[in-house]
Design brief:
- The complex is a heterodimer.
- Chain A is of the alpha/beta class.
- Chain A has two domains: 149 residues, P-loop containing nucleotide triphosphate hydrolases (Rossmann fold, 3-Layer(aba) Sandwich), CATH 3.40.50; 66 residues.
- In chain A, 33% of the residues lie in helices and 24% in strands.
- Chain A contains seven helices and nine strands.
- In chain A, the strands form two sheets. A five-stranded parallel sheet of chain A has the order 6-7-8-3-9, sandwiched between helices.
- In chain A, α4 crosses α5.
- The N and C termini of chain A lie close together (7 Å).
- Chain B is mainly α.
- Chain B has one domain.
- Chain B contains nine helices and no strands.
- Chain B starts with 17 loop residues before the first helix and ends with a helix.
- The N terminus of chain B is likely disordered.
- The chains are: A alpha/beta, B mainly alpha.
- At the A-B interface, α3, α4, α5 and α7 of A face α1, α4 and α5 of B.
């Protein structure tokens, strides 16, 4: 299938020791329609991979499968060389996922939301939260109830988690949709910074990513 | 925004203990409930209204009321806890927080348990505290008050724990209608029977050891198994 070929050919790093995330012979079918079959790719530390495909081509499904939220697939997924089912805990400790539903409770304030979502992964202080909100352009919004924010601001609150999390793998599903021009720039910089520090990013977007960084593409269209 | 706060890229195992994640989840759910006063008051008001309808609908005769008091309070408590069940996971499912919870490296058992405990503190405990007052209204004999409170204390957590399984199974469905009640109510029947029987027996002066033992056993069993079932059901629901 084209996807595996495209993914491997673009890869031009000096072959790092081992891939962080590796998918082998992934197959997924929904409503009698094959979304992808025999999909193979590896994601190495310091790589930024954009998953592309037309609407309904299975981008979100692929990301959810990789995170373990969707189990209706065949094939193997390895994190750091170990199948993710075998050592789920250390995989989840290294994973940060932001989906279509951004995981921001509207009744709570930005700070309360971030305090909880961080508590599930790594301890943070109030100063960390302020700094993270500052980093996504929400300085001064820490104690504003999220109901009084716009959709783009919800997205930013959830993106603040990128700055609070120690995770090495970021899996982001359409993170650009509701962001304004500045937000897009900020996020692009965050992605490049993360990859530069040896993290790995998997992102779906229709937006043309403008990053000072080599971008790998995984195309799900056949 | 080029420099990051410190915790970035430590590449280590999670430093958060399960207990602090448990605490954070409990605190978050309580906070949400406190901010939504309606959700806090609704079960209590419902409980009060349903119980007060019985003297109007059945009879205001003290003898008749005494005979139905135990069952009435127990059935109303059961319905009140059903009323607020949907709050457990619905909002989290819709805003994506549930996915975050499922992707936490912490054992899901404890996260679900924290949410269930929060639900009980919000909807179960107030009902337990209000029950003696309503029992007085229904002419429940005075020596059965403590039995009522104790059996409700043992029984209402079970309602939250079993209810959680039902909500977890149905949270992904678009139109749920009565399906939640159909799943949950049969599971709670043993608790209802034993609880109501214990209160009725207390007014007759019968020994209650067996009732407490049975309720305690059901609570212990549901504490250890129900969150596992809820966790499995949640995974299916987000699939």
């Amino acid at each position: 299938m084209s996807a595996s070929a495209a993914a491997t050919s673009v890869h031009a790093h000096d072959a790092p020791a081992s891939p962080l995330l590796q998918a082998s012979a992934l197959f997924c079918e929904r409503d009698d329609r094959v979304l992808f079959s025999d999909l193979n790719f590896s994601l190495f530390p310091g790589e930024l991979m954009q998953v592309q495909g037309s609407n309904g081509s299975g981008k979100t499904t692929l990301l959810r499968i990789l995170c373990g939220l969707n189990s209706s697939y065949e094939g193997e997924i390895y994190w750091d060389g170990v199948a993710i089912d075998e050592d789920r805990e250390s995989f989840l400790a290294s994973l940060l996922y932001i989906g279509h539903r951004v995981g921001v409770n509207k009744i709570l304030t930005a700070r309360e939301n971030l305090r909880w979502s961080s508590a599930l992964h790594a301890p943070v202080t109030d100063a960390d939260i302020d700094a993270a909100l500052d980093g996504v352009g929400l300085a001064g919004y820490a104690d504003v109830v999220c109901r009084n924010m716009s959709a783009g601001q919800h997205q930013r609150v959830s993106l603040a988690r990128l700055l609070l999390s120690p995770a090495r793998l970021w899996v982001l599903d359409e993170p650009f949709t509701t962001l304004d021009v500045h937000g897009v720039k900020t996020l692009e910089r965050l992605l490049a910074d993360h990859a530069g520090r040896g993290g790995a990013v998997l992102v779906t977007t229709h937006h043309k990513l403008d990053v000072p960084y080599e971008l790998r593409r995984l195309n799900l269209d056949r | 925004m080029t420099t990051h706060p410190s915790p970035q890229q430590s590449n280590q195992r999670p430093q958060v203990s399960t207990f602090s994640a448990f605490q954070a989840t409990l605190r978050r759910d309580l906070l949400i409930a406190l901010k939504r006063r309606n959700d806090l008051l609704n079960p209590l008001m419902f409980f009060l209204i349903v119980v007060s309808l019985f003297p109007l609908g059945v009879s205001s005769d003290p003898v008749q009321l005494t005979s139905i008091a135990a069952g009435t309070v127990w059935v109303s408590a059961l319905l009140a806890s059903m009323l607020s069940l949907d709050n457990l996971y619905r909002a989290d499912y819709e805003d994506g927080s549930l996915e975050q919870l499922l992707l936490s490296p912490q054992p899901l058992y404890f996260m679900v348990l924290a949410k269930n405990i929060a639900h009980w503190l919000i909807s179960g405990l107030p009902v337990v505290l209000l029950a003696p007052l309503l029992a007085y209204m229904l002419y429940l004999p005075a020596d059965a008050y403590w039995t009522l409170v104790f059996t409700l204390l043992l029984g209402t957590p079970v309602l939250s724990l079993f209810g959680s399984i039902g909500v977890a199974l149905t949270v992904g469905l678009g139109s749920r209608g009565l399906i939640l009640a159909v799943i949950v109510l049969p599971l709670t029947v043993p608790v209802l029977i034993i609880g109501a029987k214990a209160v009725a027996d207390a007014s007759l002066g019968v020994s209650l050891g067996m009732h407490y033992a049975l309720l305690g056993a059901i609570l212990a069993m549901s504490l250890s198994l129900a969150p596992l079932a809820s966790a499995a059901a949640l995974k299916i629901s987000v699939n």
